Amino acid sequence: MTTTGPTTARAPETITYTGIESSYEGTMLEVRHLKKNYGSGEKTARILADVTFDVKPGEFVCVVGPSGSGKTTLLRSIAGLQAPTSGEVIFEGETVTEPPAKMAVVFQDYSRSLLPWMTVAANVELPMRNKFDKAERARRVEDALISVGLAGKGSLYPWQMSGGMQQRAAIARGIGYQPDVLLMDEPFAAVDAQTRIELEDLVLRIRQAYNTTVLFVTHDIDEAVYLADRVIVLSGAPTSVTENIVVDLPRPRDQIETKALPRYAQIRNQVFKLIQEAKSHASVQS
Amino acid sequence: MVAADITPPAGAPAKARPGLPVLWDARATDLALGAAAVAGVLGLWEALSRTGVLDTQVFPAASTVLVELWRLLGTGVFWGDLWATLSSALTGLALVVLIGTVAAMLIGLIRFVENSTWVVVEFLKPIPPIALIPLGLLLWGPSPTMKVTLITFGALWPFLTQMVYGIRQTNNVALDMASSYRLGWWLTTTRIVVPTLLPYALTGLRISASIAVIVSVVTELIGGAEGIGQTIAVAQINNALPTMYAYILTAGLLGVGINLVFQALEKPLLFWHPSQRGDTN
Asked: What does CATH list as the number for A25-102+183-190+214-270?
């Protein structure tokens, strides 16, 4: 059984939020008819046509789409980093017009989002500076580094670390900020397959430990299905939501056991077909 | 609350800060090579003078010049001249930093300013400051104001060009990060913008500093303002050749000194930069 269609029609019993509680009740994030064009007149690039979906508190939602489907544009709009052409993003009941305080972003390009002139600890601490006093920051930095497996590495500089460790540091920075929602923009696209698997499991554990809602953008179908409670499949540009697929696989997920389940293969194939269709549709259009 | 069971990645390299001994070795070698080259040139100069290949009436022996320089080091006039040249150069540089930073911000960040100024900038850049000495003398006479103005004019361009380039290369991912974590303008400026621009600023400043010294000496030499350049001209007129050459050497040493100061600044300020850190992943 696969529930599709609008999120509101989704059978709630397919997901169990065991142990997940958030400071916000109700819908965490609502994306409403989001539209984004670049340029104007004849040269208008229509990136997002009409994107609508919801994220519930504690949910792990993956957004997948073919390349060029405006995934990053969508995430930047949700994060309040750019204004949509029309439509709106509502986060904890308020329309997003600037980056919300309870939202953190983990960027794909860790080598540029981490500051090379600061130690890893200072990088993790930086967003906390306007929020907590020094002792509190030190404690939270320590916590965040332990939770991503970088205990004792805080005094290193990012460029003294492997790519995987740098992205762990970037995740620690996001987590240390104590967001209600963690937005992740293709965070593992630049690391090798082995590291990617480690980081996927790390994100699942962190989400469990910190009760964080996660919106995870990826082009990797396996990654999306493995991680998510729900996968949102995008069409090619101009983009809308093609499908909303509930991933009713048991948790905790396991790289071997979960991926060996027939249900995993079923969902994976469904997403794969949808993406293929979106691709061919996009290529016919352009 | 925290999953403490998460293990560190297997075999991830944990490189320590770049090994200082290695750098020191390289630096010592560089220093030794530099010193050897200087000694070689002085030796050749001495030999050519002694054997009569160089006319000592035009080109006194290296030893004569060095002895004269040593004598000058004990005189107040020498240090007064040195300070006159150096202080003008430094004042000019301070103005370059001030004007250059503001101008670079305007040019780099506002499209209209860039479009309306680039022709003027490209027109002014190749004008040698020496060509403006007559104008400067007319306006201010052989005064420190004239010197500092011409130094600022001549030394502005490398710094300005580097700064504009630096602003264009700004790391947008870091700025997005700053914005999404609501760092605010103070943290964004001090922790991201300034460190990002620092390598460009130091490179520009280093080139500008050499030009500042050159222009300072030349305005003294031609414009007659007080300083090393003026004394060179006076010594030449009075046929005090060892003094003249001693001062010329001093101008050269001043350039070397400024370069060394900037190199010394770069190491602690830019330890994180790929050009300085030596090892990368």
From this structure: 3.40.50.300
Contacts of B7 in chain A (CB under 8 A): 149
CB-based contact A45:A38 (threshold 8 Å)? yes
Res. A286: pLDDT tops 80: no
Instruction: State pLDDT tens for residues B98-109.
Output: 999 999 989 888
Contact (Cβ atoms closer than 8 angstroms) between residue B3 and residue A147: yes
pLDDT tens readout for residues B204-246? 999 999 999 999 999 999 888 889 999 999 999 998 999 999 9
CA angle A109, A115, A119 (to 5 degrees): 125
**How many residues belong to chain B?**
281
Interfacial A residues in 154-173 facing B (CB < 8 Å): 156-157, 159-165, 168, 173
Q: Which of A101, A146, A162 sits opposite B182 (nearest CB)?
A: A101
Instruction: List chain A domain ranges.
Output: 25-102+183-190+214-270
Q: Which residue of A has its CA nearest to B18?
A: A160
d(C-alpha A29, C-alpha A102), whole Å: 12
CB contacts, 8 Å: A159 with chain B: 272, 274, 277, 280-281
The pTM assigned to this predicted structure is 0.78
Does B27 have pLDDT greater than 90? no
3-state SS of A223-285 is HHHHHCCEEEEECCCCEEEEEEEECCCCCCCCCCHHHHCHHHHHHHHHHHHHHHHHHHHHHHH
The distance of A162 to chain B (nearest Cα, Å) reads: 6
ipTM of the complex: 0.84
B215 forms bridges with which residues in the sheet? Answer: none
The answer to whether the CB of A212 falls within 8 A of the CB of B1 is: no
Which residues is A32 bridged to in the sheet? Answer: A88
Residue B271: strand, helix, or coil? coil
Distance, CA of A187 to CA of B90 (rounded, Å): 48
DSSP string, A106-175: E-S-HHHHS-TTS-HHHHHHGGGTTTS-HHHHHHHHHHHHHHTT-TT-TTS-GGGS-HHHHHHHHHHHHH
Rounded Cα–Cα distance for residues B254 and A207 (Å): 60
Domains of chain B: 81-272 (1.10.3720.10)
DSSP state of B8: P
Query: Among A146, A177, A208, whose Cβ lies nearest the Cβ of B4?
Result: A146
